[in-house]
Backbone:
C-alpha cells in the first residue's frame, strides 16, 4: 500500500513535465514506464509498456489548446496495475489507455477552472499582491494534487475490480487482449514511419 | 540583458498556468519579470503598465519561446526610453512583434520538436535496443534487453530531444535580442525547412529499416508452428495496412488498437 501511494506520487510529479513544468521529456512513456517498472520490480515490463504506449500515442501532439490523452498516466497506470495489482500486461495496457483518455477530460476541467480564476490572478499580479513565480508554484501544486487524486482513485478502482472479477475472465478474452496487445508495436511502427512522411508547410 | 541562462530556466515554466483565455500569459510574465523589474526599477507606474502588457495573450512552442523573449526584451527597452506621447505607438509595435514572433516560432516548433524530434528520439531508442540485443526484432528485443542498454537508450533518446531544445531556447533569446525586422528577429538565421526535412528523411530511413528487419526476423526465426506463424504474419500485414489507412484518414492509431481490442473481445465473448 505504501509503495502504491509513493509510486502514484512520483507518477503525478513526472506528469507535470507533460505540459506544466519542464517538458524535458521525463514524462514520456518510455521514461515513466522504465522508472516505475524499476521501482515495482520489473523494469523490462515497464519499458515495454512504455514503448508500446509511446508508439500508439505518436499521433497526438499538444498543439495550442489541444489536450491529448496523457501518455504518462496511461503508461504509469498500466505498469502499476500490472505489477502491484497482478493484472496481466495486456489488460493493464488497455485499462491504462482508458485512464489516459479519462484524465484528458479532467485536465480540460482543470484548465477551465484556471481560466475562471484568471481575472483574480491577473488582478493580484498587476497590483503586486503576488508574484508570477508564486502563482505558478500554486498552479503546479494544484495540478500535482489533481493528478495524484485521479491516479489513486482510478488505479485502486480498476485494481479492485480486476481482483474481484479476474477469476471469471474467460480464456478467450485473455487470448483476444493478447492478440490486440501483440499488434500494438506493428500499428505503432507503421504510424512512426508515416509520421516522418508528411511534407512541411512553408514558413 | 539579463543572464540568458536564468531566462532559459524560466522558459521551463512558461506553461505553468496554462489557461484557455490567455494561454501562456502568466508564464510569460514570470519569464519577463526580472527584465521589466530592471528596466523600470525606479518607475513604479511604468512597471505596473509593463506587467499588465506582459499579461496579454501569449502562445508559442515552449522550446522556441526564446525567439519572442529576446525581441520583446529589446522592444521593452525601447519603450522605456520613449517620450510619453510615443508610448502607445511603441506598445503597438511591441504587440505586433510579440504576436508575429510567437506565431511563427510556434509553427516551426510544432513541426520540429513535436512532429520530428520526438519520434526520432524514439527511433534512436529502439535502434539501441535492437543493436544491444544483437540485432533481433523490436518485440523480441524488448523481452530480453538488460537494464544498462535500456538506460543508454533512454539517455540517447532524451538527449536527442533536449540538446536541440536547449540550444534553441538559448540561441533564440540571443538571436532575437540581437536581431531586427530584416532577419525576423533571428528566426530566419537558420533554414528550418531544410533542418526538418533532414531529420524526417533520417527518421523515415531508420523506421523502414526497423520494420523490414523485424519482418525478416519473423520469417527467418523459428515459429511456434507453421500455421501459427502464417496467422501472425497475416495479422501483422492486416494491421500494418489498416494503420496506414487510418493515418490517411487522419484518425490516430490508438483508435485502431481500441477497436481491435473491442472487436477481438466481443468475438471472444461470442465464442
Residues:
Amino acid at each position: 500500500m505504501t509503495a502504491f501511494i509513493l509510486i502514484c506520487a512520483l507518477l503525478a510529479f513526472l506528469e507535470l513535465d507533460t505540459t506544466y513544468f519542464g517538458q524535458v521529456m521525463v514524462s514520456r512513456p518510455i521514461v515513466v514506464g522504465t522508472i516505475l517498472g524499476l521501482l515495482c520490480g520489473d523494469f523490462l515490463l515497464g519499458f515495454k509498456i512504455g514503448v508500446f504506449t509511446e508508439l500508439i500515442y505518436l499521433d497526438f501532439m499538444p498543439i495550442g489548446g489541444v489536450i491529448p490523452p496523457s501518455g504518462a498516466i496511461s503508461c504509469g497506470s498500466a505498469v502499476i496495475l500490472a505489477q502491484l495489482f497482478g493484472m496481466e500486461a495486456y489488460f493493464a495496457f488497455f485499462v491504462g489507455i482508458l485512464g489516459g483518455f479519462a484524465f484528458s477530460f479532467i485536465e480540460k476541467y482543470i484548465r477551465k477552472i484556471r481560466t475562471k480564476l484568471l481575472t483574480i490572478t491577473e488582478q493580484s499580479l498587476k497590483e503586486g499582491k503576488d508574484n508570477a513565480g508564486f502563482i505558478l508554484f500554486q498552479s503546479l501544486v494544484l495540478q500535482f494534487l489533481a493528478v495524484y487524486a485521479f491516479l489513486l482513485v482510478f488505479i485502486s478502482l480498476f485494481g479492485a475490480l480486476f481482483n474481484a472479477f479476474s477469476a471469471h475472465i474467460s480464456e478467450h478474452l485473455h487470448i483476444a487482449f493478447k492478440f490486440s496487445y501483440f499488434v500494438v508495436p506493428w500499428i505503432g511502427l507503421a504510424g512512426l514511419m508515416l509520421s516522418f512522411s508528411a511534407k512541411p508547410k512553408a514558413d | 540583458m539579463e543572464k540568458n541562462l536564468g531566462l532559459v530556466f524560466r522558459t521551463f515554466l512558461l506553461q505553468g498556468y496554462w489557461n484557455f483565455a490567455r494561454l501562456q500569459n502568466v508564464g510569460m510574465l514570470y519569464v519577463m519579470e526580472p527584465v521589466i523589474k530592471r528596466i523600470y526599477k525606479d518607475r513604479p507606474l511604468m512597471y505596473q503598465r509593463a506587467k499588465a502588457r506582459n499579461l496579454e495573450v501569449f502562445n508559442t512552442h515552449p522550446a522556441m519561446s526564446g525567439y519572442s523573449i529576446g525581441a520583446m526584451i529589446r522592444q521593452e527597452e525601447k519603450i522605456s526610453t520613449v517620450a510619453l506621447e510615443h508610448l502607445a505607438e511603441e506598445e503597438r509595435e511591441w504587440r505586433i512583434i510579440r504576436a508575429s514572433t510567437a506565431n511563427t516560432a510556434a509553427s516551426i516548433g510544432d513541426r520540429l520538436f513535436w512532429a520530428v524530434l520526438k519520434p526520432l528520439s524514439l527511433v534512436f531508442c529502439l535502434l539501441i535496443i535492437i543493436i544491444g540485443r544483437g540485432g533481433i526484432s523490436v518485440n523480441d528485443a524488448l523481452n530480453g534487453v538488460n537494464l544498462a542498454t535500456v538506460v543508454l537508450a533512454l539517455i540517447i533518446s532524451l538527449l536527442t530531444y533536449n540538446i536541440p531544445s536547449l540550444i534553441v531556447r538559448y540561441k533564440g533569446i540571443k538571436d532575437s535580442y540581437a536581431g531586427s525586422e530584416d532577419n525576423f528577429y533571428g528566426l530566419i538565421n537558420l533554414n528550418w525547412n531544410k533542418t526538418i526535412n533532414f531529420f524526417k528523411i533520417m527518421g523515415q530511413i531508420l523506421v523502414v529499416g526497423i520494420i523490414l528487419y523485424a519482418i525478416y526476423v519473423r520469417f527467418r526465426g523459428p515459429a511456434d508452428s507453421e500455421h501459427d506463424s502464417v496467422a501472425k504474419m497475416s495479422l501483422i500485414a492486416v494491421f500494418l495496412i489498416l494503420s496506414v489507412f487510418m493515418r490517411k484518414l487522419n484518425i490516430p492509431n490508438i483508435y485502431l488498437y481500441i477497436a481491435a481490442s473491442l472487436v477481438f473481445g466481443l468475438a471472444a465473448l461470442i465464442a
User: Anything to note?
Assistant: Chain B touches chain A through 93 residues (CB under 8 Å). The longest helix of chain B spans residues 87-132. Chain B has a mean pLDDT of 88. DSSP finds ten helices and no strands in chain B.
